[in-house]
């Protein structure tokens, strides 16, 4: 199999990575073209002792680190959630951004990433932690919890505070929830469906969303009430009993793509 045939399946993923790294489709694609031109011009210099995918990304990084095809991460060609994600990544310094994208987006091991960017695995792990900490700092939010079970509410509150967010209030009825949301506007709502006075968390959320836009995560023992096949369905839905890690992941994901906390 020729080198070109070996590399061909990996090119779409390299383009994805290059666009995420540079924050621009045009700049990312330019780096990929430059990488391929370098390989064609000097095929004997292509790393032959590693997996072809690793060799391809290694060549890309050599081009990226030594060229100046762009002055910095841009956001051209992106809109909506993609633009928000690119804005967050653009705020990261280059090495942490590379380490995070290569592990989280491209699925490379820390040893592979160390080879690609010329660091040992411990340094790569620290870079990933640094990137995640920076993104967490960008997405700090005030959180309204709508939950009538005291033990569950306390557990959710602990999870939220452990992530570095502020809990504005814990509401147990629809009326409480709307009042608390109007008193102090939250950046995220975590809502149960069945509330203390037999009112509905769904209705509470509808009331709140009628006043302003805010990401919502439903945490419920009755997911079938929301997963009806009709639209709109919630983007984030967690079933009780829940894993703490699931709640943490949903919170991070909801805030990562929230326009209100996006860097400007």
UniProtKB/TrEMBL annotation:
The keyword rRNA-binding does not apply. It holds the Pfam family Response_reg. One of its GO terms (biological process) is phosphorelay signal transduction system. The modification 4-aspartylphosphate is found at residue 192. Keywords: Phosphoprotein. Residues 142-255 form the Response regulatory domain. This is Phyllosphere-induced regulator PhyR. It comes from Sphingobium chungbukense.
